[in-house]
What we know:
The complex is a heterodimer. Chain A is mostly helical. Helix content of chain A is 68%, strand content 0%. Chain B is an all-alpha fold. Chain B is globular, with a radius of gyration of 19 Å. Chains A and B meet through α1, α2 and α3 of A and α2, α3, α6, α7 and α9 of B.
Amino acid sequence: MKYSEIKEILINSLNNDCDTTDYSRRLEDAGVSYDFRDGFSDKVLGKLFPPGSIINHEVDFLKTMNYVFYRVTLPGVAAIVLLLISFYLMEGSLTFNSFLGLSDNYDESIVCLLTGNL
Amino acid sequence: MIKESYSLTDENELVKAALDGDQKAFGDIVNHYRKMVARTVKGMLGDSVFAEDVGQDVFIKLYHSLSEFRGEARLSTYIQKIAVNLTLNEIKRRKRFFSLFLQKGNNEMYEFEIAEQDTEERKDTSEIVNKALMMMDSKFRIILTMRMLQGYSTRETAEMLNLPLGTVLSRLSRAQTQLKDILEKHLK
């Protein structure tokens, strides 16, 4: 492209009512094109999604699960132990019947005290 | 499930896929719009490492703000605005950097940049355009970049730069005067 032609495009592209699309197309046809260097997309994606990120996500997930496990399991086990102790104190044994409340060891003392039938 | 190919006409589908963690979808967006971003960034900053970094930052910022994209405007407009903002920020940063050096009396870097441009003898179309752009004031350079390289109308330029239409019209006239001067005195 001749210098005079380039000059005309550059100056006229700043006219308010000009067809800027035509000027940009003519310049592109004349070899005025812009692009980033090779590997640009890979660099962007590499910064956004580092190779170790999937593994890190998995490790984070396992850590979270481990934390949840301890938070749920320990109080659960403690509750079960307390329940067993209370059964034992109330029923005097830990047989299957005592869990169902069918043991023979039925203490009426509280009922007697409340009703006055000593 | 990751799709093998996308229709670039459906930007919202691409954005949704990218938001769902589909890396290929975002890769498609980068590849489709990289030249558009390069025109803005390299038109304003020249073909430098800084421009490459700003270009990467544009897409990184786009990825992190994709959830805010509501699809009311074209994705290209959204990306272009990010590119303009980050490029103008980089120009401000460089101005601050150079002003610090100049205050201390160390203006070698600034002189080197100008000298490097002047040592080139070949004046093909691309070089003339780039030299003209680099010699303009940044507030006029962005106007020329938007119109000459991106093909935006005056109204679109005003919208893109978030400036009143009257300001853009005024800058068009002043930019034209400065450009004529540069082409006559420095690049003939």
